[in-house]
């Protein structure tokens, strides 16, 4: 962390390694601002706005056949208690508890029958397109940061999920480099972006840069950086940048806007235990809109908890009835907000989980378990072909009946939308070139 404003400057001739690391990190969770600026300078100039993606992960595995792929004619032990309702797409129905999505489904593409390789809460496929058996692959946001970075002060890749530790953190840059880790705007990570009210503090920061310049040879020996140059100066000036600061500041949004997004509009249970309830948090959805509008290329966020198993205290249908209306508000408000701001074609919104839930209901609870053979995803905007349903499952929503759509196909579609060359290879930890995906085929019906 960079906490120069609260600590005395080192005035001796040589900076310590600790001070090098403090300034190099700049509080960005591994993303060095100067590195971001260097990548900006290398990127080709574009005359049009680069596209962005907001990636909404329903962590835990949302029940596809209770939400977007209902089977009202299936036996009672499969179909669940919810009623399907008509949507703006003729002949297409979704759950009664998502009427706002139903009214705008003509502006969406609903993909059914997605098959995942993993059948547990390992999100490797969600963030890379590839299962864990493919090795440690960089998250797609890190790949975008490496190959198509932003051309301004903001980071390319922002994760609105707090770091949860090494075991379950699948948003790592791995072999594309630490400079392409996601920026996580939590706790102390934003302290360096606070306004600089004391001119002495800013001068101290500039003095520290000068101290770094004087220690160029020592830092080269430490190999902490490839060299200190004008990008470091830009990075320090950016600490006080209003554009960077304002993009992460929700205080400028009206309370009415947060209410429209559904903030605290309802409570949902922890997993399926009815006695532990949380307020719905719509702030990440609104923050995501602010960030892509400012130019961030990849924003990822998690929305609530969707791991609805069976158990003595469990009730998947109570949980879903609590969750769906609030998700409905947040997703539709986000899509409408982007459209009203003229960003629909420039921003792709993807909503999905890591898998679906077992079509047959577990009588204890009731609940549904993990099901990797058939999940759903929603796509909005991004210049893709909307107003369609892609894929179909059998009469019990167990499996696709017209071909397999995988997470690799989803990820290839996102890369294609963002202008990433799917034929590119990146060297892994051993220097061996790796394709971004083993199957780099986008979903054809989406890209036209």
Task: Characterize the structure shown.
- This protein has 448 residues and is an alpha/beta fold.
- The chain has one domain (49-176, 250-447): Alkaline Phosphatase, subunit A, CATH 3.40.720.
- 31% of the residues lie in helices and 15% in strands.
- It is built from 16 helices and 16 strands.
- The strands form 5 sheets. Strands 1, 4, 5, 8, 9, 12, 13 and 14 form an 8-stranded mixed beta sheet that branches. A two-stranded antiparallel ribbon has the order 2-3.
- Strand 6 and strand 7 (273-279) form a beta hairpin.
- The longest helix is centred in the last third of the chain and has 25 residues, at 316-340.
- The radius of gyration is 23 Å and the shape is globular.
- Residues 1-31 and 215-238 have low confidence and may be disordered.
Please indicate the percent range of residues in DSSP E strands (runs of 2 or more).
5-15%
Low-confidence stretches: 1-31, 215-238
Q: What does the average pLDDT come to?
A: 83
Alpha-beta classification: alpha/beta
**CATH class, please?**
Alpha Beta
* Topology-level CATH name: Alkaline Phosphatase, subunit A
Sum up the structure in keywords.
448 residues, alpha/beta, Alkaline Phosphatase, subunit A, 8-stranded mixed beta sheet, two-stranded antiparallel sheet, 16 helices, 16 strands, 31% helix, 15% strand, disordered N terminus
Question: Mind sketching the topology for me?
Answer:
Elements: H1 17-25, H2 33-42, E1 52-57, H3 64-67, H4 76-79, E2 84-86, E3 93-95, H5 99-103, E4 108-115, H6 124-128, H7 140-147, E5 157-159, H8 199-214, H9 216-222, H10 230-238, H11 242-247, H12 255-260, E6 267-270, E7 273-279, H13 283-294, E8 298-302, H14 316-340, E9 347-352, E10 356-357, E11 370-371, E12 375-381, E13 388-390, E14 405-406, H15 407-417, E15 425-427, E16 433-435, H16 444-447
Parallel strand pairs: 1-8, 1-9, 4-13, 4-14, 5-8
Antiparallel strand pairs: 2-3, 4-12, 6-7, 9-12, 10-11, 15-16
Helix pairs in contact: 2-10, 13-14
């Amino acid at each position: 962390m960079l906490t120069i404003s609260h600590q005395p400057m080192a005035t001796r001739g040589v900076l310590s390694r600790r001070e090098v690391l403090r300034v190099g990190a700049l509080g960005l969770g591994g993303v060095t601002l100067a590195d971001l600026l260097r990548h900006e300078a290398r990127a080709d100039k574009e005359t049009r706005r680069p596209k962005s993606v907001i990636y909404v992960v329903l962590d835990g595995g949302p029940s596809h056949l209770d939400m977007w792929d209902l089977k009202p004619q299936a036996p009672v032990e499969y179909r669940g208690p919810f009623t399907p309702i008509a949507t703006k797409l003729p002949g297409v129905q979704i759950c009664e508890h998502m009427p706002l999505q139903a009214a705008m489904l003509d502006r969406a593409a609903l993909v059914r029958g997605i098959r995942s390789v993993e059948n547990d809460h390992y999100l490797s496929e969600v963030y890379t397109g590839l299962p864990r058996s493919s090795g440690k692959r960089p998250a797609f946001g890190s790949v975008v940061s490496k190959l198509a970075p932003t051309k301004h002060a903001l980071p390319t890749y922002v994760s609105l999920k707090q770091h949860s530790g090494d075991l379950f953190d699948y948003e790592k840059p791995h072999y594309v480099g630490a400079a392409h880790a996601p920026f996580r705007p939590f706790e102390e990570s934003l302290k360096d972006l606070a306004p600089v009210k004391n001119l002495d503090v800013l001068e101290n920061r500039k003095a520290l840069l000068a101290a770094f310049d004087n220690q160029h040879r020592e830092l080269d020996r430490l190999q902490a950086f490839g060299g200190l140059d004008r990008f470091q100066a830009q990075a320090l000036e950016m600490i006080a940048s209003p554009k960077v600061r304002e993009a992460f500041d929700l205080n400028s949004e009206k309370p009415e806007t947060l209410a429209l997004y559904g903030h605290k509009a309802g409570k949902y249970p922890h997993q399926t235990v009815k006695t532990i309830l949380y307020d719905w948090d719509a702030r990440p959805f609104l923050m995501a809109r602010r960030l892509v509008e400012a130019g961030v290329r990849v924003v990822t966020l998690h929305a609530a908890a969707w791991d609805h198993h069976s158990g003595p205290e469990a009730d998947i249908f109570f949980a879903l009835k609590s969750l769906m209306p609030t998700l409905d508000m947040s997703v539709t408000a986000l899509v409408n907000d982007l459209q009203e701001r003229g960003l629909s074609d420039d921003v792709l919104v993807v909503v999905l989980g890591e898998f679906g839930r077992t079509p047959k209901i577990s009588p204890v609870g009731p609940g549904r378990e993990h099901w990797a053979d058939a999940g759903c995803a929603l796509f909005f905007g991004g210049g893709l072909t909307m107003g369609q349903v892609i894929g179909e499952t059998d009469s019990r929503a167990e499996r696709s009946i017209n071909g397999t759509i995988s997470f690799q196909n989803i990820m290839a579609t996102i890369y294609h939308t963002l202008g990433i060359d799917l034929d590119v290879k990146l060297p892994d930890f051993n220097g061996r070139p790796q394709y971004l995906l083993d199957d780099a085929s986008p979903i054809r019906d989406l890209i036209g």
